[in-house]
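Propose amino acids for all 251 sites.
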């Protein structure tokens, strides 16, 4: 019933966008205006009638389904939801795993969670509308391809206080690792160009992540990319600067 309701609501939205009235629909279906209004209010469409109205609007039922699916997807959590994740270690692990297309069994095999804990936490993520918990404990992520954590939100602060230190405890000379450090003097215009290039690189990373979600879990490895740039001088340089000579980047 919930799916039918969502489809009918999406159809009403399509009709409104195309300025198609209920009277026009009634004429097309050879029904009274009152009957058509009742169909939409009670959402009691037969598949045949739903298909007929879609045909009149120049769309397919599959188009409605895709619209419903897209409307359900989220591109960002609320601050409160992110706070829920950082306050519950197990919930955060299961959330990140689920969003990376791990199955119920994949998570159970990798982490020391009981089935009861898994179901409880997945049900919580379902209530947060991050996933659909389907029959058979199947997990369907409900995030858009451009999903991002809140800027300066709980997850990013969690990264800064806990993850960042752990991440940089590496010489970055192992397989799949790289660290680049470049320093120089740039104008504000060149700084903006570099920031644009970094943003494009981050987009490439997200695109490859989305493409690789279709690959077997055994072939995918948790990978993090940190890009950072800021006008900056080493502290001991600053200690030797003459008073009033510290440069402030225009902002």
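Proposal:
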């Amino acid at each position: 019933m919930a799916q039918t309701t969502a489809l009918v609501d999406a159809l009403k939205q399509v009709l409104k966008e195309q300025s198609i009235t209920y009277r026009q629909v009634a004429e097309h279906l050879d029904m009274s205006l009152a009957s058509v209004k009742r169909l939409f209010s009670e959402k009691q469409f037969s598949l045949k009638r739903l298909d007929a109205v879609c045909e009149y609007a120049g769309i397919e039922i599959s188009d409605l389904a895709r619209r419903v699916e897209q409307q359900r997807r989220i591109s960002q959590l609320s601050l409160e939801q992110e706070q829920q994740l950082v306050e519950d270690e197990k919930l955060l692990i299961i959330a990140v795993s689920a969003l990376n297309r791990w199955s119920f069994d994949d998570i159970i095999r990798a982490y020391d969670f009981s089935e009861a804990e898994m179901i409880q936490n997945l049900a919580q993520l379902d209530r947060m509308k991050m996933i659909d918990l389907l029959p058979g404990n199947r997990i369907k992520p409900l995030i858009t391809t451009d999903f991002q954590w809140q800027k300066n939100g709980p997850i990013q602060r969690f990264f800064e206080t806990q993850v960042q230190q752990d991440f940089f405890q590496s010489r970055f000379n192992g397989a799949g690792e790289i660290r680049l450090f470049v320093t120089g003097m740039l104008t504000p215009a060149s700084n903006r160009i570099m920031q644009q290039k970094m943003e494009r690189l981050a987009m490439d990373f997200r695109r490859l992540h989305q493409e690789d979600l279709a690959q077997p879990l055994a072939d995918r490895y948790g990978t993090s990319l940190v890009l950072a740039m800021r006008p900056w001088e080493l502290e001991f340089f600053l200690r030797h600067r003459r008073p009033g000579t510290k440069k402030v980047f225009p902002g």
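The first strand starts at residue 131 and ends at 134. The CA atoms of residues 18 and 57 lie 8 Å apart.
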